Design the sequence.
């Protein structure tokens, strides 16, 4: 965790920095390993995720050490969220990046750091009881004016501007950064469990206005939405999100110069909705998410490339035949996601250096 007298890292990912990183590491990998990413960056097509794990010092160290080695090995896209592991994943990423920059493994300008806000984050350890949690929310969020009870869905999800603004400040402190390169509104479809789509549209416009303001102030570089079901289910389904409407909301707020440029959703051998299922309305046509993203000029990051470890073993022989030339099922699963058009990066969460090396084998030069 940063201490009060620690200065945040200045600068942010830049076109020149990420191109320099790609040029330095590219000889290790397949020709398409580094890919364009908004606003003019280059990212590794395998990114490091930080979702799973316990709120323990051991898992903190696992993520921090693995992220450091990832930066040294060819991964320059790090993905986290303020609610992951009671803010400890953000803090682990912050330590890893600080170490890597301090030891001249990378420069700050070479690394794309992504985080998310939308869920009320716990701090360090979970409350012992439900009553303790409610007291924490009341004290730290309701009493401070960061959120109102009617803005919180399912006791934990909020996208009110005052809440998101505070989350951005906390995430910057956790990560030790002046600028977060990509900031996602986290699972906005969660709101549809309690409110109508029209009200969600209003809330998203207000959230996007706040994010545009923070872009203008240099606190974030660009933004988007990280979703689970929202972009994968068809129109009319519970929790459906329209990518075209998300872009329209950003345009309503900031015109052609808006900074909404990326979405994240699960894409893997088990979840092929983004490729095959017509879930996005574009004019008179309903098309899969990846096609919609291409037409709307939105970058796509694939989460859950290994479906939280479920795709690391026992893949059927048909997959081995369709994705030949790899040593393990984990590599085959990652290679499948990397092969999809419009996917900038496939996120794989790991706290293990051994698994990191295995995962990178999905894109080694052969």
Sequence:
């Amino acid at each position: 965790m940063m201490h009060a007298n620690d200065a945040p890292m200045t600068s942010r990912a830049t076109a020149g920095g990420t191109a320099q990183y790609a040029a330095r590491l590219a000889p290790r990998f397949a020709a398409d390993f580094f890919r364009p990413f908004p606003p003019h960056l280059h990212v590794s097509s395998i990114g490091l995720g930080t979702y799973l794990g316990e709120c323990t010092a051991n898992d903190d160290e696992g993520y921090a050490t693995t992220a450091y080695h990832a930066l040294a090995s060819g991964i320059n896209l790090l993905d986290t969220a303020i609610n992951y592991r009671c803010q400890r994943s953000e803090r682990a990423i912050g330590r890893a990046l600080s170490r890597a920059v301090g030891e001249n493994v990378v420069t700050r300008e070479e690394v794309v750091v992504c985080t998310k806000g939308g869920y009320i984050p716990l701090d360090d350890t979970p409350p012992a009881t439900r009553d303790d949690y409610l007291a924490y929310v009341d004290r730290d969020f309701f009493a401070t004016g960061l959120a109102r009870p009617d803005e919180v869905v399912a006791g934990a999800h909020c996208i009110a501007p005052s809440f998101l603004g505070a989350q951005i400040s906390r995430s910057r402190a956790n990560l030790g950064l002046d600028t977060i390169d990509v900031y996602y509104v986290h699972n906005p479809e969660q709101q549809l469990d309690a409110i109508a789509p029209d009200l969600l549209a209003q809330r998203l416009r207000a959230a996007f206005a706040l994010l545009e303001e923070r872009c203008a102030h240099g606190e974030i570089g660009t933004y988007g939405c990280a979703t689970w079901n929202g972009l994968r289910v068809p129109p009319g389904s519970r929790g459906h999100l329209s990518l075209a409407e998300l872009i329209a909301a950003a345009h309503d707020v900031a015109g052609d110069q808006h900074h909404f440029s990326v979405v994240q959703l699960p894409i893997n051998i088990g979840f092929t909705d983004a490729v095959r299922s017509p879930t996005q309305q574009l004019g008179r046509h309903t098309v899969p998410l990846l096609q919609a993203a291409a037409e709307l000029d939105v970058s796509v990051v694939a989460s859950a490339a290994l479906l939280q470890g479920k795709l690391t073993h026992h893949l059927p022989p048909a997959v081995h035949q369709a994705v030949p030339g790899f040593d393990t099922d984990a590599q085959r699963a990652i290679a499948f996601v990397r092969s999809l058009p419009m996917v900038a990066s496939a996120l794989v969460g790991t706290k293990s250096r051994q698994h990191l090396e295995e995962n990178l084998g999905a894109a080694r030069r052969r």
In short: The first strand starts at residue 34 and ends at 37.
